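User: Hey, my collaborator sent me this sequence without any context and asked if I could get a structure. I don't really work with proteins. Can you help?
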Amino acid sequence: MEEKTNKIENKKEEKKVVKEKALVRGLSLAISPKSSYAICDVIRKKDPSKAIQFLERVIIKKLAVPMNNREVPHRKGNLMAGRYPINAATEFIKLLKQLKANAEVSNIESPVITLAVANRASRPYRRGGKRAKRTNVYLEVKSAVKS
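Assistant: No problem. I've predicted the 3D structure and written it out in structure-token form, which is a compact way to encode the shape of the chain:
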């Protein structure tokens, strides 16, 4: 009886597989594609926890997300053009928390966001014939330490 339990425990220990990347997808999120592109540009090549801190500061309007070349007004200070996309920031925080959890499960040490892509999703009709804004988001994290 003891031999069987030892074999089962050994099999459980052997099954730990170290994955090289972790990812999360947000499909058809009700956020603006323009602000999503800008947020993806900012959080790329950052640690997920630092990206969450940045977006929390955007929500309380302490930092603006830079949106150069996107036809938005200028902000005071040393930032040229930018905005405070609160709805997009809250959705990205949810995705980043999930990405951080996926990285922990995958045993990724010192994760860094390598891919942050936002694309337009299908736009359903609303009342009055208007179209809703929808965005697909894909985030991928890999280990910063080369092994």
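In plain terms: The radius of gyration is 20 Å. You can pass these tokens on to your collaborator as they are.
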